[in-house]
Amino acid sequence: MVKKEEYVSLPQLEAMLGISRIAVFKKVKSGEIKAIKIGRNYAVKQDQILSILGKAVGKKEKLEIDKAVKKTVKDYGEVLKKLGKE
User: Fold this and answer.
1) Given CA atoms 30, 33, 37, 40 in this order, what sign does their dihedral have?
2) Is 42 helix (H, G, I), strand (E, B) or coil?
3) What is the tens place of the pLDDT at every residue in 6-40?
């Protein structure tokens, strides 16, 4: 059984994000927002809200950021050092 307090409905998420119902639904369908289907409606876990709002970084996003930083340092390390000295 799903506890109501653990999830936010799409209309509630729409209000939090300040975007249209259709925009939220498209993000769910594309997988950008992970939601579960409950009957005819969708719901999003509470613990994903901060990540969706951009106020928290999930494990997957952190790994992508770390990978990008390592690649940047590898490719542009000398340039970054010179810029740091200026």
Assistant:
1) negative
2) strand
3) 899 999 999 988 999 999 999 999 998 999 998 99
Same domain? For 11 and 51 the reply is: yes
Q: What's the alpha-carbon Rg for the chain, to the nearest Å? A: 19
CA distance 49 to 37: 17
- On whether both 32 and 46 belong to a single domain, the answer is yes
Output the DSSP codes for 45-69.
Answer: EGGGHHHHHTSS--HHHHHHHHHHH
Judgement on whether residues 32 and 71 belong to the same structural domain of the protein: no
Note the pTM of the prediction, 2 decimals. 0.57
Q: How far is CA 14 from CA 29, 33, 59, in A?
A: 15, 12, 24
Question: Phi and psi of 44, rounded to 5°?
Answer: -120, 140
Domain extent, residue 74, equals: 57-86
